Structures are given as C-alpha cells and as structure tokens.
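Hey, weird one. I pasted the Glycosyltransferase sequence into the form twice and got a warning about non-standard characters only the second time. First submission, copied straight from the form history:
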Amino acid sequence: SGEQAQPPASWSRHGAAWLYRLLHDPGRLWRRYLLTPWFLLAPLLRLRLAVSKETPR
C-alpha cells in the first residue's frame, strides 16, 4: 500500500481533509465519500428530529 500525502493543516482545521483527499485521488475515493454515507442520512435526520421534539427550549 502506498503512503498518502497528508492534507495541509488548514484543510484539517476546517474539517475539509476529506475534500482534499477526494480532490487529490478521486479515482480511488469518490465512492467512499460521495455514495457510502448517504444511506445514513434519513435515519440520522429522524433521530435528530425525535431528540429535538423531546428537548424543551
């Protein structure tokens, strides 16, 4: 396995290290970052809405 370059600190500080990696190695990473996480979106939104309804403001 080859060693991947680390993203610049500024990218990591802003939570964009994943974007840096995607831009520098799109052929290998596009599925991981663009397709895989979307199946989690609906359950996470439902959970967030349920918690926000239970918590009084």
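That's the output from the first submission. The warning seems to come from a hidden character in my clipboard, not from the data itself. The mean pLDDT is 82.
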